[in-house]
Design a protein that fits this description.
The protein has 164 residues and is an all-alpha fold. It has a domain at 2-86: Orthogonal Bundle (DNA polymerase, domain 1). The protein is built from 9 helices and no strands. It has helices spanning 2-8, 15-18, 23-27, 31-36, 41-55, 57-69, 75-85, 118-133, 154-163. Helix 6 runs antiparallel to helix 7 (75-85). The radius of gyration is 17 Å and the shape is elongated. The two termini are 26 Å apart.
Length: 164
């Protein structure tokens, strides 16, 4: 939900700018591209920093999982997970790396826009839920092991941490 994420950053006036971008385009934004779109200097900096934090979520989840397994306080990991669930998360598709379909990103059935009507958004949520469901049992035994999740499987990693 990009508009809600932007609102939480107090940058909701830039929602229209993001409406025509794919997730990958948003994640690759630079200050120069934002400047070309007449985004103010402070907002440009805040957007770039916020996108960098989005890129670091996988490592943060791995760290949170370790903290939980070590028996640490659950308050901080739960707060981090709460904040993370409010950020844009792309549904993971294992088909994106299949050799018979190179270049497929798994979202071809969805519009390219990051913003859409509620019906389109619920379809993405359903896809994200399906991606999370497939990892629900294997990664949630409460053991330190478990099968390693592929890089980019943020929903699976999130679900694994919740299971711990």
């Amino acid at each position: 939900d990009v508009p809600a994420w932007l609102k939480s950053l107090r940058l909701h006036k830039y929602a229209a700018l993001f409406s025509q971008m794919t997730y990958e385009e948003m994640m690759a934004l630079t200050e120069c591209q934002l400047e070309a779109q007449n985004v103010t200097k402070g907002a440009r900096h805040k957007i770039v920093i916020s996108i960098q934090k989005l890129k670091e979520r996988q490592n943060l989840l791995k760290s949170l999982e370790g903290d939980i397994l070590e028996g640490g306080n659950l308050r901080v990991p739960l707060q981090e997970l709460h904040q993370m669930i409010l950020t844009p998360i792309k549904a993971y598709s294992s088909q994106s790396s299949s050799p018979e379909e190179p270049g497929r990103d798994g979202d071809s059935q969805h519009p390219a826009s990051l913003l859409g009507s509620d019906s389109q958004g619920s379809g993405c949520k359903d896809a994200a839920a399906a991606g999370m469901q497939q990892h629900h049992l294997p990664g949630c035994e409460g053991e330190s092991g478990g099968a390693p999740l592929p890089e980019g499987d943020l929903p699976g990693q999130f679900t694994r941490v919740m299971g711990k």
